[in-house]
Write a structure and sequence with these properties.
Elements: H1 8-16, E1 19-22, E2 25-28, H2 40-52, E3 59-67, E4 77-86, E5 90-99, E6 102-112, H3 136-143, H4 149-156, E7 161-165, E8 180-187, H5 195-205, H6 212-216, E9 227-238, E10 248-258, E11 261-270, E12 275-287
Antiparallel strand pairs: 1-2, 2-4, 3-6, 3-9, 4-5, 5-6, 7-8, 8-10, 9-12, 10-11, 11-12
Helix pairs in contact: 2-5
């Protein structure tokens, strides 16, 4: 009997719906996709969900995260929320993710009551419409034979997001380029209207392609066998409400890399040009020496 195909969007919503096992303690799991470690954006998103479930009437405006150990995809993750402060305007939470009795991740999150004040924002950069760009299926069909095997397998895997890079050339060759890229992204299917779900999905997708931007300048990618990549820390600032099931333009750059670490930044714009979130990340991009020949 053939197994029913997996709905990746439904699966994502399920893994973001954490189990409450005690006051301030939640448990999450991840999909079994054959990775050796848990995807960092999953832990970021689940930690946000855990923090939000201890706060009423306020929305998160910033998150600051540290990845301490590689997560085990075969084990559940326990999230412990510490209620640091409940002030008149701001609320602060600390979340620690634990596996096998050890912390693998920590996050501090600040929430704010709604206020009005001065506003300004950068304009969205120019980019072709996402509908004019090939989907992941189109990419595999057209360029699959030219892609490194790891890239092809990654694009062939069912995923909950539709990701469309503006410039495809860097995935097909090793030329060095300016360390910047733009990517359109959205959930493959409509999501529930709950704003908390859309924030969690934005947190989930924010770790995708960001560290890779630091490698553009060196003609490499996170799929390169000569690089050991890993997210070290990750920061998110939520500016304005946005739907994660509508197209979002993720504009990224990398000001510097040094000490086997790449520093990257991202601005996320809604389809109508509103700046909805900002991101910063430093990640390991350690060169790997080739194994000596026997």
């Amino acid at each position: 009997m053939t197994a029913a195909p997996v709905d990746p969007v439904a699966e994502l919503l399920q893994i973001l719906d954490l189990e409450r096992i005690e006051t301030n303690i939640f448990r999450g799991v991840g999909p079994n996709v054959g990775w050796q470690r848990v995807y960092g954006g999953l832990v970021v998103a689940q930690s946000l969900v855990a923090a939000e479930r201890t706060v009423e009437g306020r929305t998160p405006h910033s998150m600051h995260c540290y990845f301490l150990l590689a997560g085990d995809p075969a084990a559940p993750i326990v999230y412990e929320v510490e209620r640091l402060r409940d002030g008149r305007s701001f609320t602060t939470r600390r979340v620690v993710a634990i596996q096998h009795g050890r912390p693998i991740f920590t996050m501090a999150c600040s929430f704010q009551a709604e206020e009005t004040g001065l506003e300004h924002a950068f304009a969205a950069p120019a980019a072709p419409d996402p509908e004019s760009l090939p989907s992941q299926t189109d990419l595999v069909e057209k360029f699959g034979a030219m892609m490194p095997e790891a890239v092809r397998r990654y694009l062939e895997r069912p995923r909950p997001l539709d990701i469309r890079p503006v410039d495809l050339s860097r995935y097909l060759g090793g030329a060095k380029r300016d360390p910047e890229q733009k990517v359109w992204v959205r959930a493959l299917k409509p999501l529930p209207d709950d704003p908390k779900i859309h924030r969690a999905v934005i947190a989930y997708l924010s770790d995708m392609t960001l560290l890779d931007t630091a490698l553009v300048a060196h003609g490499k990618s996170v799929f390169s066998k000569s690089i050991q990549p890993a997210s070290l820390d990750h920061a998110i600032w939520f500016h304005r409400p946005a739907r994660a099931d509508d197209w979002l333009l993720y504009a990224q750059d990398s000001p510097t890399s040094v000490g086997a670490r790449g520093f990257t930044r991202g601005l996320m714009f809604a389809r109508d040009g509103r700046l909805v979130a900002s991101f910063a990340q430093e990640g390991l991009i350690r060169p790997i020496e080739p194994a000596p020949k026997a």
